[in-house]
Structure formats: structure tokens, C-alpha cells
Amino acid sequence: MTHLIIVLTLIALDIVIFTLLMAHILLRRNGSSETRLAWIVFIILVPYIGALLYLLVGGAHFSIRRKHCDILEMPGIERPDLADLPGMDINTPEPYRRVFTLAENLCPSDALGGHALELKTNSDSFLEPLCRDIEQATRHVHLLTYIYLTDQAGQRVADALRAAAKRGVKCRVLVDSLGSKAFLKSQLREDMMAEGVRVVEALPARLLRIARTRLDLRNHRKIVVIDNSIGYLGSQNIADPSFAPKAKYAPWVDCMVRMKGPAVHDLQELFLSDWYMDTVELEQELIEEVPHVEPDGAEVQVIGSGPDLPSEILSMVIQTCFHVASEEIILTTPYFVPDIAMETAMLAAARRGVDTTLILPKNNDSKLVALASRSHYERLLEAGIKIHHYTSGLLHAKTLTVDRQLFLVGSANLDRRSLELNFEVNLLGWKPDFAGQLRLLQKSYLNESERVSDTQWLQARWPKRLARNAAGMLSPLL
Questions:
Q1: 300 and which of 227, 273, 281, 429 could share a cystine (Cβ 3.0–4.6 Å)?
Q2: Pick the catalytic residue: 115, 120, 222, 431?
Q3: Pairing mode, strands 394-395 and 252-253
């Protein structure tokens, strides 16, 4: 009798826990219907593991301080109205202007004119000018990265920062807790701090923080701001292309943008907001200072995204890029796991006759994401979208060009993690000359790629189709 009571009690407890979890999934404010359904199915199939994983990473919750760290809303902080300053007018033609209109309605930043942009197409073309700019800094250097390795690239940047700090330049380095785990424990970090470089751990990953924060919410941004006049953003971490932690996929192929102009102020705001989240330190004058306007420059908008900002900012911007395209779309990303709306926008563009090309790495460091990505290929190929697999390393650049006119480049992948969870930064812009340079880079990727054959892909054997589609079902959770 006692045994029966224990069994019935456990069954009742299971039912109560399951019911509460289902209610929580259905009542949560963030997340799509497909994500809710995926979590419910996953918990039913693997009840205890699924429930534990949902409690750990199922909701985009983070600490109260992080939810209320908008530095622009703090008493006494005055942000200059950049859009009203001379030389910052936007002349982007329709229909591309619609993308900026959407972004301005979703983001705290403005679309601004007056920018000098330089495309850095590989690691050396990024690190050499970066170190040179740091060597010429007179006031401050702010660097935010997801991964900082103690390799040659990491040493080069560290040396430049240490020399700058010795000159009295304020050097602040913010690195993600998980992405830069080894660096945070390294001698290099200790040496940098001993010589005056502030190195801070972003979003500390501690088991004791689970109740307040999702441990898998990461700061994936790559930002450098120097003297509030020069900014860098893009896909490259502070690491050699050989990327020692995953050398068998090397080289990592990235691109960055060096920028001068008023939008550097928006990069500064993002960095200072992230710095404040982990230090509660803020230099007000850096927010109120306005960078120089470059004559006849590009029109751009810095798009910061993350769980502390309105949901689906970046997803809607990219979808609108697909909607306004009339001739050509070229997209590169290492991780491609679109939601239904994103995939539908791509399919609609291709069906309208837009020449649509997707370039992905042939060998991906995430096998599950690669399988989930390839579960979408059949529909894309049937719509006429050209898919190419890059074969000369892991293509890590995240780029989008539209009609040789509009461009998007930054840190965000085209997957759920980047679009909904991680802190990311991207640059939306209109400048045919720069869009043409970025398109030439994309074409160079195509020259080192293999086109996916429609016939061969559609005739794949059932074990491969089974693995792809099973991974695709989990894509809302990836």
C-alpha cells in the first residue's frame, strides 16, 4: 500500500510539473508559436532532460539590472540629436529607404549620412589598421569581442593596448565570459591589467546565476571605438584565422568595416551600455560628444539587437531587405537557421524573379546547426535560390547586399540565437560604391565555392533526409 501511495504521489507530481511547464511555455511573452511547440514536443519526448533544459535556457530572462541599463534614460544623460545636425541628411532612394524607416522605428539609433567606410576583407587588413589606430589614440580605446585568443592576433592587439595605456590612454576591453573563457584565465590578461588596460568579463557565466540569468545569453558583438572618432564592427574576433580551438575548420574567413562619422557615436553607446551592465561605470561626456561628419559619405544605421531590446529587430530588417529587392540578393552566413517568416521572405523574393544567392561553409563547426540548415535547402532550391558551399575554410563573414545598392554587415548569424537571443551589432547602409566593394568580396567567396546541385540534393537517400529533417524540427531551439 505504501509503495502504491509513493507511485501515485510521483505521478501526481509529474503531472503538476508538466502542467506548470506547459502553462509557462504558453504564457511567455517572447518567442514564436513554433518555438513554443518545439519546446512542448521536446519535453514530451524527453521529459526530465527537456524540462531541465527549458528551465536553464528556455526563456530569454536576465537580471533586473540588465533589463534596466538603458544609459540614455538615466537622469542627467543628454544624447545629442544627431539627425538634426548639418550633413547628416538621408537621401536613400525608394524602395530602400523603407528599410531605414523600419529600423529607425525599432531601434534607438538613427539613420545618418556622412560616413567614410573601409572594408577589411581579411584578418591582416583588419588587425594592421586596428593596431595602428590604437597606437595613434590619444584619449580612449574601447574594445568588445566575443572571443579573445592568446595567439599572435591577441598578442598584437594586447601589445598595442598596453603601449596606449602607458601613454595615458584609457583602454577598456570587454570580452564574453564563455567565448573568452581561456583568455580570462590567462597570463596575457593579467599582464594587460598590470599595465593599465581594464579587462572586464561580460555576462559572467556562473551556475549560481541560473535563477536570475540564462547562461547561454551571450554578448556576440564585435566593436572597437577609438577616441570617439573611429569605429570598427563586423564578424572577426580577436583571433588568428587559424583559430586554434577549432583548427580543423580553419581558416576562419571574416570581414570588418572601419568607419568614421556620426554613427561611431552609436557604437560608443552600445559599448558603454554593455560596459555599464558589468561594471556600473559610465563616462557621461563620451555619450554627449558628437563625431565628425565626413562629406559626401555613406548613409548608415547601427543596429544593436539583443534580449534587452524590442524582439525581432534584425529579423524584420532582413525580411524587409528581401521585400524591397528587385534585381539581386547575395547573402553569406556561417549558420543558417531561418524562421518561417524569414524563409518565406527569401522564397517570395526568388519567386518574384530576384536573383538570390546563399553562400554557406561546406564544413561547419556545428554539425547540428549544419543539419538543421540543410533541412531548408529543398524549398529554397525549388524556388530557384542558388546555394553555394564555400570550400576554402569556415566562411564566418555575415554579409548581405541588395541590388548593388543596400548592404548589411556585422556580427549576427542568420539563426535563432543571433536573431532572438544574443547581443549583436550590425551596420545597415546605402552607398552603391561600398555595396559594390562588398559584393566583389561576396563574388570572391563564390569563386571558392561549390554550387549545390538541385538534382543531387533532391535525390539524397532517406537516412540523410531523416537526419536533416529531425535537426530541422529542433531549429526553433538552436
A1: 429
A2: 222
A3: parallel
Pick the catalytic residue: 115, 376, 398, 431? 398
Same domain, 279 and 328: no
* Identified catalytic residue from 115, 260, 396, 431: 396
40/86 same-domain check: no
Instruction: Out of 300, 328, 351, pick the residue that ends a domain.
Output: 300
The yes-or-no answer on residue 403 being catalytic is: yes
Give residue-wise pLDDT tens across range 80-130: 666 666 666 778 999 999 999 999 999 888 999 999 999 999 999 999 999
The domain in which residue 194 lies consists of 64-92+110-300
398 is an active site residue: yes
Q: Determine the pLDDT at residue 61.
A: 53
Res. 464 pLDDT band, cuts 50 70 90: low
Kindly report the pTM of this predicted structure. 0.88
Q: Exactly one of 159, 227, 355, 454 is catalytic; name it.
A: 227
Q: Give yes or no: residues 45 and 77 share one domain.
A: no
Residues 258 and 318 in one domain: no
Looking at the fold, whether 120 and 141 belong to one and the same domain comes out as yes
Number of domains in the chain: 3
DSSP code per residue over 181-250: HHHHTSHHHHHHHHTT-EEEEES---GGGTTTS-TT--B---EEEETTTEEEEES--BS-TT-GGGGGGP
- Count of positions (residues) in the chain: 478
Question: How far is 263 from 115, CA to CA, in rounded Å?
Answer: 8
Catalytic residue check, 222: yes
CA count, 13 A, side-chain hemisphere, 334: 26
Domain check: are 140 and 219 in the same one?
yes
Specify if 306 maps to a domain: no
Give the separation between CA 454 and CA 331, rounded to whole angstroms: 19
Name the β-bridge partners of 330: 357, 401
Candidates 115, 142, 220, 388; catalytic one: 220
> Is 171 domain-assigned?
yes
Same domain, 248 and 116: yes
Per-residue pLDDT reduced to its tens digit, 45-58? 666 666 666 666 66
